[in-house]
Amino acid sequence: MKVFYASIEDVMREAAARWTLVAYFLLSTIFIITFASALNLDVVDGALAGAKLFGKDIHTRGEMPIERLVLGFESVFSVILYVLCTLLAVFATAHLVPRMQEKGTIDLFLSRPVSRLKLLMSRYVAGLILSGLNVFYLLGSLWLIMLWKTHVAHPRFLLAGLMILFVIAVLLAFSFLIGVITSSTAVSIMMTYGLFLFSVVIFFEHTRLAAAVASEWKAKLLEGMYWIAPKLVDIGKGVTAYVSTQTGPFKMESALTPGPFITTAAFAIVCLVVASWMFQRKEF
After folding, report:
1. Gap between the Cα atoms of 167 and 264, Å rounded
2. Is pLDDT at 32 greater than 50 in this prediction?
3. pTM for this one?
4. Which helix (H) or strand (E) covers residue 95, if one does?
């Protein structure tokens, strides 16, 4: 276990030495400062009398209850942070496997009394820790800013970070698989971003495309691709519905169904199993 923890510590030291850690949190800090300075609220007796965002007035019909305003802002920013946190996490962690497999570096890692499986999993856990710290740094900071400006606290905004971290874990598993296969950071980033975009396209278009193709097997193939791919849009809708507790287009009851989470978790598990199997059989 000590060796496992030492491997996680190595990842953190490596991230700090390569300025990845600094750049990661610097970008997040810029976003937080921008949000804090851009939002100006005039709250009178628990109601919104006036609001400005980036110096422009936000028009409302009469005085809006401040709780409703906070829910609106947090639901919008949950979508932004869902995309921002996942893409930043991929960029910050895609190097973990390719860097480890470089000549000389892998020899040093394999000389340690730790199995290849534990070595790979320790870097996966370290990547999740690094990403998780940034997720809750962003969400926690924005939550505190909203609390400071409005004196309204909604814990759901913070808890939504667990769903965002879940998506990061899925993309990180896929990134590790590509990293084991190609030993390339650039390819890992491009393929993982490609998976993100593919999951968005297949969500919106799989039904229409399946209806448009001439062959039944092609329609089944498209439908199968939808169920195999991670359900990133479904989970993103679930994040928004959970934060806003709304009853509109993204009803919480329909958005937070277990199906997308189960199939997406299965995708991540398969990626990790295949990556572990290939890494253990790989010759260095």
Report:
1. 8
2. yes
3. 0.85
4. none
